[in-house]
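re: ur question from yesterday

yeah so i grabbed the chain u mentioned. its 395 aa long if i counted rite. heres the sequnce exactly as i have it in my notes:
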Amino acid sequence: MRRMEMMRLSAVLALGAILAQTFVFANYTIVHRRTFNLNTTFAGAEAIGDVAFDGNNLYVSSWHNAAGVQTVRLVQVGDIGTLLGTNSGALAPSGWSVTVSAAGGSRDTRLVYHDNHLYWGYGLGDGTAANTGIRKYDLNGNLVTGWASGGTLTLSGAGVNRYDTIDIDPGYSGSGETLAVGVFGSTIVRRFDLSTGTNAGNAGPVGGATSTRDYAFAPNGDLYIRTQGAVAVATRAAASGATAFNTPTNIATWNEGALAQAFVAYIPVNEVYFSGFSSLVLYNQRVSGQNKIFIYNVGNGTSVGVNELNGSEQVDDGNNPVGFPNTFLNASWGLWNGRMFIFVVNGFTGAGVNEGYTSGSFDRLDIYEVVPEPASMLALGSGLVSLLALRRRRK
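ran it thru and got these structure tokens back, copy pasting raw so excuse formatting
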């Protein structure tokens, strides 16, 4: 009897090991959960430009396509639980909104979240100090006036003639987080203290092209750079706290005109969600007709079974949204209730439609989820059935 019990236990353990391997080496995909029409909030020439997530609420920021000084805004859209329980379509943000005067004429916007605060770069690419800047807000929409100069990091405060992008630099292998600022025409990564706004020591030069459009840092401090017609990765040079980068290596190139709204985003699937899955680099191409987000697999796990997102992927309520109408795209990510989401915004500078999501052009927010392939879950379920059957036989 004792020998039989041991044999059954060994079988259970062996089956458990097989199931674990089945899950670890399974493929995964990206599922389209929701498409929201925010066109009423961002009317006319104002357009959504970036999105951030604090673990509960989503935020979006805008830029303006009209010439001269214009009003742009930072908006708390709402909590993700409520959004996932709301049907795709027209949506009125449920949270707060703040506005600033900023340079128009297709000037860009960037938004990042860190430690219960939002860092918002507006009027990016403009050289007039009064019409651009980087601000810090708490999650209630209050300007943190103790950061930088009265809550705004000005051009003179940073010692630059323009801003083009911001991101959180984790430092070499998590050695120390700072706010990284990228400037078109420079290969220096300017870093600022997240608490005070003072200069935290510049990094670089990175080398390569100077047409910096966007930054995306991996958790280990490696830097992905979106330049004109390319995405490159510059690995951190060496020791802890290193401010040097190795020569960038292109991971994607294409022919592209001199256009401003361009992005790159690092989705750390392998590092923070599931170590068997490859992390992803998302980016757009400012090429007519390429109204989509391109996906590059970093290669540190099983590749995702999706090469691009064009906005028309079927959503949970059963309909296929209209595809992204143009190349004004941006993306970020977040974890919620043990699930990983990718958030995509697509700006539109025309009149647009204010209702629906299956036709026409509009400012939009899309929610995607990183999901293991159904086949792997089926295998896991079959294994559990076998375990239960084995237990019943034992009784």
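noticed a couple things. Residues 2-24 form the longest helix (23 residues). also The chain has a mean pLDDT of 89.
anyway ttyl
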